[in-house]
Amino acid sequence: MGYESKLTKLPSYQMRSLPLFSIHQYSTSTIPQSSYRSIKSDQHESTNNKKMDLEIISRETIKPSFPTPHRLRTFNFSMIDQIIYDCYTPLVLFLPNNNKATVNDVVTKRSKRLKETLSEILTRFYPVAGEVKDNFHIECNDKGVHFVIARVNQTLEDFLVHPDDQKVRELIPDNFGTLQSSIRNYLAGIQVNIFNCGGIGLCTSLSHKIFDGHTYFMFMKEWAAAVRGSPQTFSPNFMASEVFPNNPSLKYSMPSKLRTTKSLCTKRFLFDSKALDLLKAQLVTSITTSTSLPRHGPTRMEATTTLIWMVAAKAAFTIRPSSPQSPHVLLSIVNLRKRSSPPFPSECIGNLIVHAAGFCFPESQPDLTTLMGQIRKSIAEINSDSTESMRGEKGQEVLSGMLKTLKDMIDGMPEGDCLIATSLLNNGIYEIDFGWGKPMWFYVMNPEFCRFVALNDTIKGGGVEATVTLSFDEMEIFEHDPVILKYATINPSPLQYLHD
């Protein structure tokens, strides 16, 4: 077999326009501290703060079904992999039991099928089963993937009545990838959480050194196809390390202020299609009177990110009135695959992402139109020309300069007021089918950042679910802001998406 059981115990800067991390300066108009060790939901709103009744059934290491050939034993990082944040992103797919298998069948037959097929696809995604060495390559030694099976003494529907962030985090395999975990030497950890109804919470905690969001979705789609017995739809393409070779002389560490040691608060904000239409209409009205904005209407990503950034910046400024030189920064994660010429193949895996960076000065007077315009401009500057500028020795020099500028800027801010934003919209996550029913809900957790927002699709209706992490003080202001209350529902049950 390709997997083996290993039962274990619990164990003062100057800003300029940059081609890759495009940084835009603008003022904003007034509108009406933290550690990943303790990222919690607001306990005043939680209906169930005690730990779940969860029992670990087994812990194993899943290895590729065939040994990785010697010629593939070294997987070189790309330059982007090299400098990407060394963190893990926990994500959970909640799968129903539509064909009403018994819980015993789910524990035995389905979990066995998940393990066997994971072992099979690891032969194609072989770097995932290796170990990071010296930040320049992965040793593809078939170490394997940490794999846990657990029973949850609750039905999936009951769990989804109020799934706050703290509750969902209990589904992470052995705190995998968090600062509390003692097993960070794997690149991936997976926990199959089996509910009393036979539903499954499939939690994957993945190293960002090899997985960006696109890679995750490709991996999960292939795994689901293998479980169904369908033929593989693609072979992973590892060309990124050839296009953007790593550079041992490139030294970069993530600004420490992006990951600190205080408590954080994470909440979900649902923007349904009606609210989004209202928000877009307000922005369209502003666009038609603007001489600088492109005339096309705002996307869901633009509308929600603009609104969240505006209110988050206001909350930070309310708590920490900044000097004229102290901005609030937005780092939007941008997929490079379609922004190069020619585009990278969709099956390219690894980190083909960059940040579009903008900043505002909350002491000025912000408005939605100005903020959205700057988000558009910063992202638009990540194009085929900027992608080309990253290639070769000259590209390494360009990247080095951009990283230094960004790091100096953030390190020079008193509280490191920086919101990292990622959009997982339009990735087809709710079409993934392991053969037991399409997902009821998808949730992405904060990968160790102080201030973070992730945008997800709702299961239907064209809405957006935003998962927002801020300090407790900032969240208290953020969630009570009239603008947020006008457009968003706070911490709704995912079941309402199914019943609408």
Overview of the molecule:
The chain is α+β, with helices and mostly antiparallel strands and 500 residues long. Helix content is 29%, strand content 22%. It has 14 helices and 19 strands. The protein has helices at residues 79-83, 103-121, 156-159, 165-169, 213-228, 240-243, 273-288, 300-319, 368-380, 384-389, 392-411, 472-479, 482-487, 495-499; strands at residues 3-5, 23-27, 39-40, 54-62, 74-76, 88-95, 131-133, 137-139, 145-152, 188-195, 200-207, 264-271, 328-335, 353-361, 418-423, 441-444, 452-457, 464-471, 489-490. The strands form three sheets. Strands 2, 3, 12, 13, 14, 15, 17, 18 and 19 form a nine-stranded mixed sheet that branches. A seven-stranded mixed sheet has the order 1-4-9-10-11-6-16, with helices on one face. Strands 5-8-7 form a three-stranded antiparallel sheet, with no helix packed on it. Strand 7 and strand 8 form a beta hairpin. Helix 2 packs across helix 5 (213-228). It is globular and about 60 Å long. Mean pLDDT is 83; it is low at 3-49. Keywords: Acyltransferase, Transferase. It holds the Pfam family Transferase. One of its GO terms (molecular function) is acyltransferase activity.
How are the elements arranged and paired?
Blueprint: E1 3-5, E2 23-27, E3 39-40, E4 54-62, E5 74-76, H1 79-83, E6 88-95, H2 103-121, E7 131-133, E8 137-139, E9 145-152, H3 156-159, H4 165-169, E10 188-195, E11 200-207, H5 213-228, H6 240-243, E12 264-271, H7 273-288, H8 300-319, E13 328-335, E14 353-361, H9 368-380, H10 384-389, H11 392-411, E15 418-423, E16 441-444, E17 452-457, E18 464-471, H12 472-479, H13 482-487, E19 489-490, H14 495-499
Parallel strand pairs: 2-14, 3-12, 9-10, 13-15, 15-17
Antiparallel strand pairs: 1-4, 4-9, 5-8, 6-11, 6-16, 7-8, 10-11, 12-18, 12-19, 13-14, 17-18
Organism: Centaurea solstitialis (yellow star-thistle)
Family: Belongs to the plant acyltransferase family.
InterPro entries: CAT-like_dom_sf
